[in-house]
Amino acid sequence: MPIDPRTPCVIGVAQRTVHPGQGPSPEPLALWDDVCRRAAQDAQANSDVLAAADSLQIVYCMAWAYDSPVDRLAESLGIEPKHRFYSGIGGTTPQVLVDDAAEAIIRGEMDLAVITGAEALETKRQAKKAGERVQWSFKAEQSPPFPFEAPFHPAETAHNVFQAWLTFPLFDVARRARLGIAPDDYRQRVAQLLAPMSRVAATNPYAWFPKARSVAELRDATPDNRMVGYPYTKYEISVMDVDMAATVIVASHAKADELGVPQDRRVYLRGWCYATDPVYVAEHRDLFRSPAMVAGSAEAFRCAGTAIDNVAHIDLYSCFASSVHLACDALGIKTEDARGLTVTGGLPFAGGAGSNYMLHSIAAMVDTLRADPGSTGLVSGVGMHMTKHCYGVYSTTPGDVIVPDQKGVQSSLDVREPVPITDVHAGPVTVASYTVAHGRDGAPEWGLVIGDVGDGSRAYGKVDDPALLAEMEEREFVGATVELVPADGGVNLVKAQ
Predict the structure, then answer these.
(1) 3-class DSSP state for residue 218?
(2) 450 three-class SS
(3) How far is residue 249's CA from residue 80's CA, in Å, rounded to a whole number?
């Protein structure tokens, strides 16, 4: 069958990790330059791949604010792409950039896009620890505002609902209660989910922590592996302070032909979709599942003309166990699926480089598919507090070019209105989910409760009673009735009835 010349395919990938103990990392600009050049070499083309770039795109970098990051990289590479883009934040960002480039290629607006990202957060952290500041180039005179996509909700601000290690446990605790699994048994399951990922990381030369860990090592809270946000220990959560970079080069099939890219280097984007759940945590009607994961993955598979049963390789976004659990539920697969759930080792072990993890995921998937010609791979992304979701289906075998109906998918999701949030509430609520935040010494410091109010809304509550905090980690607290008492600063304090 003839291949549509506008069919988008990945022709080159590269990754780089400056591992702990190897010394300070080069600055992000140098990392971008390096992985872009190596991704171009990876294509094994007969012509200059970078010179052919119509588009140069960079994933938002947390480590350093350059004055004009994309222009600086273009100058460093010696290229003049007409389209230049510096992204916002979120775990879905790299796949969305690939998707947007693919659609522009299909429309004939571009033929080749270079997408890169890097973080040097560990080097920056070590410098700060030593009382120094990194001296990197082209610093912006005034740092741009952090690209938050939604205003803070006053109730979430009052209850300190900011950190992902605090919010993602809420989804797992709600799922645990839904399944009727005892708290300690569920903590065992979380460790059983993640231990195989660490074994994949142990074989990944780009993994930040290339070390296999046992279920007990992950599960048990120790001085080195303290509890962070119940039920997750330190080893079970994404590590963001890493020095890592990756590049993915996307081109049309015709451009790959023109550049002389061998067929066995090409991996085709067969299907994709992006969809969102509600922005604020308490707005999620069913905290134990993600409708956007269900709808987004289904549309990606529809466009790819395949199904999860036909996928040979999987990489699910794994910032926390809840994102993997909800994805498995949405895909209809078991958490112990024999195919495995990652090709990198996952964010807690391979490394969660800010918003850039998915470029590493896609690059690793490309290498995996090249080594298994004819197979299909699935990657997923999760952004913000279980709000943004994306899926990409890849294969060495090209197929029909079908652009997803993302607007239609989102419209079907938006029919279901978010749960309203009551900022301040006095009276009883039924616990919908909860977590306990632990300090650096491992001791519980305070708890967060999402409570169902009798009028159909939800309210946040803060727990500061040590006895109640201990009880929340000893038994299932979802479904319990507690009293919310308004306090200063818009905080609802939780009192046991």
Answers:
(1) helix
(2) strand
(3) 16
Whole-angstrom distance, CA of residue 159 vs CA of residue 150: 17
**Chain-centre distance of CA 8, in angstroms?**
23
Residue 436 main-chain phi, psi, to 5 deg:
-125, 125
Q: Of 93, 86, 83, which Cα lies nearest the Cα of 69?
A: 86
Nearest in space to 393 (alpha carbons), one of 309, 320, 278, 318: 309
CA terminus-to-terminus distance, the chain: 69
Distance between CA atoms of residues 255 and 92, nearest Å: 26
How far apart are alpha carbons 46 and 217 in whole angstroms?
Answer: 49
Closest CA to 229 of 75, 438, 422, 469: 438
The CA-based dihedral angle spanning residues 224, 225, 227, 233, taken in that order and rounded to the nearest 10 degrees? 160
Alpha-helical segments (H) within 380-419: 406-414
Q: What is the mean pLDDT of residues 432-453?
A: 97
Tokens at residue 398, please?
């090209």
For residue 219, what are the CA distances in angstroms to 195, 320, 428?
10, 14, 34
Q: What 3-state class would DSSP assign to 227?
A: strand
Q: Which pLDDT score is estimated for 142?
A: 87
- pLDDT, tens digit, 9 for 90 and up, residues 208-240: 999 999 999 999 999 999 999 999 999 999 999
C-alpha distance from residue 228 to each of 4, 42, 149 (Å):
50, 40, 26
Answer yes or no: is pLDDT of 150 > 90: no
Alpha helices in 132-271 (DSSP H): 154-158, 164-179, 183-201, 215-219, 253-259
User: Could you report the per-residue pLDDT of 290-332, keeping only the tens digit for each?
Assistant: 999 999 999 999 999 999 999 999 999 999 999 999 999 999 9
Among 20-29, 114-123, 206-215, 474-483, the minimum mean pLDDT is found in 20-29
Q: Which phi-psi region, left, alpha or beta, contains residue 404 (left: φ > 0; alpha: ψ -120 to 50)? A: beta
Contact between residue 229 and residue 436 where contact means Cβ atoms under 8 Å apart = yes
List the one residue out of 403, 407, 365, 357 whose CA is nearest residue 382.
Answer: 357
- Three-state SS annotation for 38-100: HHHHHCCCCCCCHHHCCEEEECCCCCCCECCHHHHHHHHHCCCCCEEEECCCCCCHHHHHHHH
| Residue 494 to residue 449: CA distance in whole angstroms | 8
Q: What is the distance between the alpha carbons of residues 282 and 491, in angstroms, rounded to a whole number? A: 15
Distance CA 17, CA 206 (A): 5
Mean pLDDT within 174-191: 98
Torsion of CA 5, 6, 9, 14, to 10 degrees: 110
